[in-house]
């Protein structure tokens, strides 16, 4: 029987507006709704998502800004509080947790959530850089009691890198769809392009950086715009803004592109879009694509590792196009604008990605009393 007298610990570094932080808070909210006490063990403590934590969550500040520097403090926490299990969020936290358990001399079960396709993220790096990234994984991951991946693609990739059995890695969908989502999406949209009678609006979202490959989306949009009036809105901020602005001017579409920056509530834009496009080079399981589907918005996505192929069931719920192929993306965008799938069909595609269902599956694993290691 699970020991419900002891808390579940979630070990993570909060450092901004990222999707990981948002998923962690969604998960904790779901665990609390299921009646579990949660200790949120923090390295960094910045970020607006912390404001959404339930009041009863115990925040444990380790007093450091770097994950590996937190190992001694985490070991002291494990010795003192003896949590029922510790869920480490992301690679560095997982490796630090293994070292802290060894230092603490406890038998704490360690589970780790992974959300990135590491092989693709490291593609193009030097052999030395890849070795420095992969060697600690191969050494430490077999010492983790259970690895939880956000998609089958992430699970397959992790098993290959770490040299562990794929059966030791469990896939659990992200807790993306919260009870608040419909209300947030129904909030007023302050952008004139989304008013009735305006041309169709295509939306992209994410940090303005290489991974998201917005240059390909802008080039595809320029092709679509040649055949019909339409506009493109990209939500997000990052160091690629100047490059994207220069590209839009070069292609002559600057008047129909708006880089509107980060929005705390992006859902009125997603819900009112005629089309959402994910142009990423790689993902783990793209939350914004899941949210667009949950709001009934038609989508087009790159068939990147990992996640879109699983979310869209191989193209059943939205077109999949090769990474970096602006022409194929433009064709899929035009066809989807002409023949969008029914909203209820799109919503059904992501029915397993609710906060409640995801938290229930996480709790089952956290309380399972795993025997043996994934290797």
Write a structural description.
The model is unreliable at 370-375 (pLDDT under 50). The protein has a 7-stranded parallel sheet, with helices on both faces. Strand 9, helix 9 and strand 10 form a beta-alpha-beta unit. The protein is an alpha/beta fold and 375 residues long. It has 2 domains: 8-175 and 354-366, Rossmann fold (3-Layer(aba) Sandwich), CATH 3.40.50; 181-352, Glycogen Phosphorylase B (Rossmann fold, 3-Layer(aba) Sandwich), CATH 3.40.50. The chain starts with 7 loop residues before the first strand and ends in a 9-residue tail after the last helix. It contains 15 helices and 13 strands.
Overall residue-averaged pLDDT value:
93
Give the CA-based shape: globular
First-residue to last-residue Cα separation: 25 Å
Q: How many domains make up the coordinates? A: 2
Give me the CATH fold name of the largest domain: Rossmann fold
Structural class: alpha/beta
Helical content stands at 40-55%
CATH class descriptor of the largest domain: Alpha Beta
> How many helical elements?
15
Order of helices and strands: EHEEHEHEHHEHEHEHEHEHEHEHEHHH
Measured by DSSP, the beta-strand proportion falls in 15-25%
Just name the CATH architecture of the largest domain. Answer: 3-Layer(aba) Sandwich
CATH superfamily of the largest domain: Glycogen Phosphorylase B
In total, the number of strands is 13
Strand order of the largest sheet: 3-2-1-4-5-6-7
Overall radius of gyration: 21 Å
Low-confidence stretches: 370-375
Which oligomerization state do the chains in this entry correspond to? single chain
């Amino acid at each position: 029987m699970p020991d419900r007298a002891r808390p579940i610990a979630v070990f993570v570094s909060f450092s901004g507006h990222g999707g990981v932080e948002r998923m962690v808070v969604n998960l904790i909210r779901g665990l609390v709704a299921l009646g579990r006490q949660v200790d949120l063990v923090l390295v960094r403590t910045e970020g607006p998502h912390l404001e959404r934590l339930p009041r009863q969550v115990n925040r444990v500040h380790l007093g450091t800004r770097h994950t590996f520097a937190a190992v001694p403090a985490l070991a002291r926490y494990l010795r003192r509080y003896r949590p029922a299990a510790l869920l480490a969020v992301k690679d560095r936290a997982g490796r630090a947790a293994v070292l802290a358990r060894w230092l603490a001399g406890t038998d704490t079960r360690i589970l780790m959530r992974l959300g990135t396709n590491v092989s693709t993220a490291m593609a193009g790096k030097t052999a030395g850089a890849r070795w420095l990234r992969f060697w600690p994984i191969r050494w430490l991951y077999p010492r983790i009691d259970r690895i939880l991946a956000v998609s089958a693609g992430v699970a397959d990739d992790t098993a290959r890198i770490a040299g562990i059995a794929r059966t030791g890695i469990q896939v659990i969908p992200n807790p993306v769809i919260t009870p608040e989502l419909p209300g947030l999406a129904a909030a007023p949209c302050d952008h004139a392009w989304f008013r009735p009678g305006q041309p169709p609006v295509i939306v992209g979202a994410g940090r303005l950086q290489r991974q998201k490959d917005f240059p390909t989306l802008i080039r595809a949009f320029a092709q679509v715009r040649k055949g019909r009036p339409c506009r493109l809105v990209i939500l997000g901020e990052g160091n690629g803004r100047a490059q994207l602005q220069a590209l839009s001017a070069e292609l002559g579409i600057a008047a129909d592109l708006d880089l509107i920056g980060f929005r705390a509530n992006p859902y009125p834009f997603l819900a009112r879009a005629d089309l959402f496009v994910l142009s990423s080079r790689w993902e783990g399981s793209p939350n914004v694509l899941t949210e667009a589907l949950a709001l009934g918005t038609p989508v087009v996505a790159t068939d990147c590792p990992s996640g879109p192929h699983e979310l869209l069931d191989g193209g059943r719920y939205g077109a999949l196009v090769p990474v970096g192929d602006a022409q194929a993306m433009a064709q899929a965008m035009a066809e989807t604008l002409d023949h969008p799938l029914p909203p209820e069909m799109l919503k059904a595609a992501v029915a397993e990605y609710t906060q409640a269902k995801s938290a229930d599956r996480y709790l089952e694993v956290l309380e399972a009393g795993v025997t043996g290691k994934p290797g």
